[in-house]
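Appendix B. One record, verbatim.
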Amino acid sequence: MAIILKPTDKLDEKSINNYVLFADENYSLFSVGSSFIFKDLKNFTKSINKTSKKRDFLTFNLNSKQTAIIIKLKKNQSELENETGGASFYEFLKKAEINEITFSDKNIYSASQKNIFINDFIHGMLLKSYEFEKYKTKKSNYNLKINCNKKLLLPNLNSKYRYKPLIEGINFTKELVSEPGNILHPDEYAKRLKQLSKIGLKVSIYDKKKLKNLGMNALVGVGQGSIRGSYLVTLEWKGSKSKKDPVAFVGKGVCFDTGGISLKPAKFMEDMTYDMAGSAVVVGLMKTLALRKANVNAVGVVGLVENMPDGNAQRPGDIVKSYSGKTIEILNTDAEGRLVLADALTFTEQKFKPKFIVDLATLTGAIIVSLGSEYAGLFSNDDKLSAQLSNAGEKVGEKVWRMPLHKNYDKLINSKNADMQNINYIGGAGSTTAAQFLQRFILKKTPWAHLDIAGMAFSKYNGALNSWGATGFGVRLLNKLIEDNYE
């Protein structure tokens, strides 16, 4: 399945099969010039009844070979509305089995808005079109060809512009999240990340031996029951000539989570292939920044492990010393993501001294109870960073909701045998106590935000901008954060 963009210097109206036109909420066409193809359409739009006006898309046969598809737009649509409109249009075309369309540059708002609008619209179509069919023997045969004036599509063809790099970064995230655990284990994941050096990222891989020497016992402990390796991978992008401190992103990469000795129930355990989604978002973001040559210095850090039950697996009751020097009592081996992030966060803060750190993880089921699949949970020690994330999320439709952190929650994770324990055994506030745990590993008061994306990383129904499966949630959010505030 693919969308193929075909730019052209001149459109031959007589050879167009499906002409796409835009109209206002009353189905009055925008300016279309004196072209012959529009004469009957103007009369057609005048005759549209009230029932038809409620629909977003209408088709009209121009002749036996040509069809006009009219798209209704609201006045002054936002970027997000343009994108969701494009996504809905893609679904319409697929259902109608329309394989080729042509956009007219004579019919898209004013000249100053053409590039912005059409690229937002096509961006939404591209987002919606992704499906993971890698392992299907019979793949979908639906492909869509989009013809358009070259001047309108120019931003899509320029790798420095944000649309094409964003699609590539988001789709890379979706692909990683969609891969089964027997394929994308930590060893394979680390190999794939090494390949990103080809696009200008500096990739450094720390294997189990190096991690042990560094004292990352919290991270290593999670993966010690697996035959696969455990890794910390850093991806650096130096896109700014200034020597300013970078912005940093940290991701949980548990490639498969059985729960370890604290074994999960069998039902729905297969979904734990996406317990590495936080890391995939960081990777997709870093790929996007490199492809669009972002004017920012950024670093991505991901901890890659597999949590398996084994004779060598971590046990409930074990005590480990983290990279920070703080000790952790492991009361439940299924609260493993916070252990991976604990070492990764301290390492990121100490090595890179960033302006801020945002970590992402499918960390708790409790956040789904709280927010469902509409908002990611946001926990932060910094009001400015929180506001920037919230604003960016609203603009791109990847919403976050700030949840509380407070020192009174600390008593729920204090341990009698170590500096802290990895779960709250008293009950309640599961997402907050997990975030409170992570906050202890920010040692130098660096502005920090934790995004719990457990309800957002994977969808079992179609969303506005994605089909069933991996959503890529977070890549557009963090790209917008950087775009609006740090470039």
